[in-house]
Amino acid sequence: MAGTTTAAERGERRRDPAGEPRSRPSWRGRLPAPPRPRTLVIAGAAAALLTAGLIWLLYGSPWLRVAEVGVGGTRVLGEDEVRRAAGLPDGLPLASVDTGAVEARIREALPRVESVEAERDWPHGVTLRITERTAVLVLAERDGYVEVDRSGVRFATLSRAPESVPLLELDPESGKSAASSLRRFGRDRLVSEAVRVARDIPEPVARTTRTVKVRTFDAFSLELKDGRTVRWGSPEEGAAKARTLRALMKATPKARVFDVSVPSAPASAAS
Predict the structure, then answer these.
(1) Could you tell me if residue 116 is inside a domain?
(2) pTM here?
(3) For the residues of the chain, what is the DSSP string, one character each?
(4) Which residue among 111, 138, 174, 180 has the highest number of C-beta atoms inside a 10 angstrom radius?
(5) 128 and 139 share one domain
């Protein structure tokens, strides 16, 4: 009668088909040998030399240094003017150029710059990509004509008003209602609202607009270069007024006065 297999019997070495004992593989002798101290020293010295060489290449060598500064995107500003504002001396290690600081210096020195992007151009250049502000209105001030962009930023003063940009006419002496509106909203607020109106004028009309007039907060109007007038009303609903004005001018091309102050009920007249 067969008995239960004992632990000792289960622990007996297995035999291969030939009857010889089968030994278990040993991995102890296959572990990699630890590196020798001399090898570690050599590897550390090589790493240190490589690091020192890289640092010298970036900051000490004569090869990776600022030799030229390229400027792109300017329309009014001169390239040399932008380079001076950037403050990048010739021979400065290219790796030392702080592009954020360069951009900040340009924006501070040149208010006409709306945005600037400075990039290293290896091995020896820096490229400055400029976006200039575009005026949507011009204000007549004591010392000249101030250009104002679509965000309301006053960025340049000119001795003469440019013909391609509407002139803002804000006259507090034109009547009691205008003086009351000026006291209530303040000049800066009315200027900001005029910028808002100028920003909403359709592009074809904006190119032919000579003056944006402000009588009161609810009475903005446009005087076009050919003598026609657009009654805009308040700055509200600018997008709807722009669409209505385009359609009204197309439907009544010979009209001299266009009223879009209420865009849902436009009107035009011969005079």
Answers:
(1) yes
(2) 0.73
(3) ---PPPHHHHTSPPB-TTSPBPPPP--GGGSPPPPPHHHHHHHHHHHHHHHHHHHIIIIISSSSB--EEEEES-SSS-HHHHHHHHT--TT-BGGG--HHHHHHHHHHH-TTEEEEEEEEETTTEEEEEEEE--EEEEEEETTEEEEEETT--EEEEESS--TTSPEEEE-TTS-HHHHHHHHHH-HHHHHHHHHHHHHHS-HHHHTTEEEEEEEETTEEEEEETTS-EEEEESSTTHHHHHHHHHHHHHH-TT-SEEE-SSTTS-EEE--
(4) 138
(5) no
